[in-house]
Structures are given as C-alpha cells and as structure tokens.
Amino acid sequence: MKITIFHYFIRQAMVNIFENRLVHLIGIGTMSIAFLIFYTFILIFVNLNYWTEEQGRSLTMSIYFKGEPDRVLIENIEKELFLFPGVTIKGFVSKDDAMKSLRRKLGDKAGLLDGLKENPLPASLEIILSRDKGGDSLPYQLKTKLEKIDTVDEVQYSQEWIRRFQTVMEAIKIVGMIFGGLLFLAALFIITNTIKLTIYSRKEEIEILKLVGATNRFVKIPFMIEGSIQGFLGGAVALIILFLVYIIVITRIDIRIGFASLDIVFLSPQFILFLLFISVIIGFIGSTISLGRFFRT
Amino acid sequence: MIQLFQVYKNFGSKNPALLDINLTVKKGEFVFITGPSGAGKTTLLKIIFCAEKPTSGNALVDGRNLNRIKDRELALLRRRIGVIFQDFKLLPRRNVFENVALALEIMGFPFYMIRKKVHQTLRYLGLANKEGYYPPQLSGGEQQRVAIARAIVNNPLILLADEPTGNLDPDLTMEIMALLKEIHIKGTTVLVATHSQELLKDTTRRIITLNKGRIV
Ligand SMILES: Nc1ncnc2c1ncn2[C@@H]1O[C@H](COP(=O)(O)OP(=O)(O)OP(=O)(O)O)[C@@H](O)[C@H]1O
Ligand SMILES: [Mg+2]
What we know:
The complex is a heterodimer.
Chain A: H1 2-19, H2 21-57, E1 58-65, H3 71-82, E2 87-93, H4 95-106, E3 124-130, H5 131-134, H6 138-147, E4 152-157, H7 159-201, H8 203-211, H9 216-248, E5 255-257, E6 260-262, H10 269-296
Antiparallel strand pairs in A: 1-3, 1-4, 2-3, 5-6
Chain B: E1 2-9, E2 18-25, E3 30-34, H1 41-48, E4 56-61, E5 64-65, H2 71-79, E6 81-84, H3 96-105, H4 111-124, H5 140-152, E7 158-162, H6 170-185, E8 189-194, H7 197-200, E9 206-211, E10 214-215
Parallel strand pairs in B: 3-8, 3-9, 6-7, 7-8
Antiparallel strand pairs in B: 1-2, 1-4, 4-5, 9-10
C-alpha cells in the first residue's frame, strides 16, 4: 500500500517537473547562481579560516644571514634555539637552495634570473614557533636576541600581520552570514515562485483530486517532493560548477598571502552533504510556503 | 443517508439557485432529480458532496453535517461518494486508465489491485481499447463513460450522476441505465439528475422535480 502511494508521489513530482521544465530550468539556473555565490564565499572563508588558524597556532620565522654562513655558526644558533620551548627547526636554506626554489616557482619565467651576475637571495634558517608552548612574546624575544649576532642580517616573522588578519576574518564572517542569509532567502523566493507556478498550472487538477476524495496531504506531497528536488538540483549544480572551477583554475595558480603559500582545499564531503541537505530543506520549505498560500485561499 | 433541511443556496444573484429544500434519501434508494435547465439539479448534487456549502440550512450525508465537516473527514466521505460530473471533470493530461485509477490511488490501493479493478470497470463500460487515450482524443460519449468508470470503480456508498446519459445515443443510454440499476442492486444509493423525460417515461422510481430552485 505504502509503495504504490510513494511511487505515485515520485511519479507525480517528476511529471510536474517535466511539464513545467522551462520554469524549473530557469528556477534551478537562477538558484544555482545564488548558491554558487554563497558557496564560493564559503570556500574562500573556510580556506582563510583554516589558514589563519594554522598560522595562528604556529608561525614561521626566517633568520636571514649576511653572505653564506658556515655550518658551525648555524649549529650554534640551532643549539641555542633548542633551549627555548616550542621551537622547531624547519631547515637551513642556502643561497643556492633559495635560488633553486625561486626558479622552480617562476617556472617558464625562470629565464629572467639568468641575467643576474650574482645570487641576490640571502641564506636563511627557517624555524617554526609554537604559540601554545612558546608564548606570545617568544617571537619578539628571539628576534632581538638573534639580530644581535653579527652574521645575522634580519629576522622576519608574520605574527603581527596574522593577528590583524584574524580580526578581519571575524568581520568577513559576519558579513558572510548576512550575505549568505540573503542569498538563501533569494533561493527560497525562487523556489516558492517556481512551485507556485506549477501549483497554478495544476489548479484544476487539484480541484478534481479533492472532489474525488484526495486528502490535502495527498495533493501536497508531490509538490513538496518537486520543491525538494529543485532545491537539491540547484545546490548540486552550484557545487559541481564550483568544483570544476576549483579544479580548473585554483589548482593551477599559486595563491600567496604575505609570504606564506596558501594551499586551497575544497569543501569536505561532510560539508558538501550538509550544503546539499540545506538546499533540499530550502526546496521543501519553499514548496510548503507556496502550498500554504494556495490552500489557504 | 442523505438529509437536507431548509437548504438555501444563493450565488449572489437575486434568484437563489436553491430555496427551502427539504429532502431525505434513504440508504439503498434510487432517486431521479429532474427539472428544466437552471432549476438547480447540479447545485443540489454539489451540496450533497460538499462542492458547495449551503447559504443556510443543513445537509447531513452518511451521518455527517457538511457545515461542520473537517477537511480530512470530507476527503474520506468523498471517497464513498462516486460523482459523475455533468462536465466530466477528467484530467486532460492523464490517460483513460490513469483517470480511472485516480479514485483508487488516492485511497492507497496496491497497484495490482488498481490495475485489476480499472481493467474490469473499463471493460464493463466498453472502453477496454481506449485505456491509453487522453480525454481530448475521446468522443463526448466516451468521455462520459470514463467519468462513469471513475465514479463507480471503488464501489461507492452513494452515486451521484449528473446527466449521465447526456452525450449518449439511445442504445448506450439504455446500457448505462442498466448499469446504474446494477450498481443500485449491489447496494449503492443512487441519485440521477436529468432533464430527459425519456429516462423517466416508465420508471416506477422516486422522482424529485425541481423548478427555479424549489421542489415541486
Ligand atoms: N458557481 C455559480 N455561480 C453563480 N451562479 C451559479 C453557479 N452555479 C450555478 N449557478 C446558478 O444556479 C442556477 C442553477 O444552476 P444548476 O447548474 O444547478 O442548474 P441545473 O438544474 O443543473 O441545470 P442544467 O440542467 O442546465 O444542468 C442557475 O441559474 C445558475 O446560473
Ligand atoms: Mg446541471
């Protein structure tokens, strides 16, 4: 008994979509644009957030040397650094290493470097400081200490900058939530109207169904399924487009913030499921609103 | 089974469609409702299956007061009332089979039973070869028979037939009337609205005559 009704509902929803395919196509199209804008925003936000958190927990300090330092000096510095809690040595980068890595990064354009008579890049020792273990004042403490050494040219770290960035993140988050809320309202509006059109295209049919004894629920369920499917498709199309853009564009370029390279990750599968779930819910709510309006009059 | 007390129906014009209708139809009765065009026959039937509410007065059907019936109860009541609409009210985008199956689908019958009952009913009405046709592809008489099939497919308690033979030739008319009799014998209460004197010529059944909204 259940199965027949369920089939009936699904079939009716499909027939509705097929018969109003133009309306649906336009609805799904506009809705996926709204979703896409929001998802892009989320993708950027998630990545920035992940990145600032990573960076906030630890920071990279670069100790730049004058000329090419000898091994003994570096070992001495390393020994001294080990005395501080929360310091990890990432490694020494010689002038040559720095040049090689720059060439690698430039790729095709590495030829630009051929004209240089000597290597202008400094050698450096890269260390990572853990904020949890070392405390907030460690970077500055180390900087002053290390810069007193003759062969050390300069000590750089990104802490200040990230702090400022975290407040920016908070602002972005709030703007994003308002913006996202508006876009979801827009999606809801689109679905409500699409379903309204299909309901009106079946006005007579609904009347007849009711005259032969269909319950309101029986009449409504196909439209609810229809709205949910539309929401799902809108969300799915947006995610697919976002993923394609991610693959094609983002993985090919190297995005840098300050001097840290930013590895862009795509949304996690759980988060994708969550977004799809939300779009189905929006579809469901949208159709429920339309049905509510229709059945009240 | 059906009781109307001082039912008035006014659609807003100066002449009401129904005036002071008092009527009782017992379970298992076969009743003709007749009268000239515009007399209020369709309106009377509409009151009975609650497509229209009386402007004043009460209508009781199967023990339920239609002025106070809830949506869900009304749906359940309508499943027990088969209606052959004067204008058929078939779904143009569904074929003959689907139109008739509708009455069973809303009740949640399993598909094999729906198929069996629909086939049976369509064969009974001589529509077996039209199953896949859509209403606009059918003649008036065929559409009328589809409407009849949908009304009787779930063995209703009450059958309301509004001009059920209006589009049929004399032979088919005889057949349909025989069919209604058969349904009646099986226990269904039948109300037939018609202005055809031909149908009433030698009937011994109860005849209610309406004129300008009144029972005469
Ligand atoms: N929905 C409506 N709105 C306004 N007036 C209506 C409506 N339905 C019926 N009427 C009026 O009520 C009166 C009775 O109509 P009804 O359809 O009941 O007549 P009838 O006896 O069935 O006629 P026929 O034999 O032509 O089918 C008519 O004057 C008609 O104009
Ligand atoms: Mg009529």
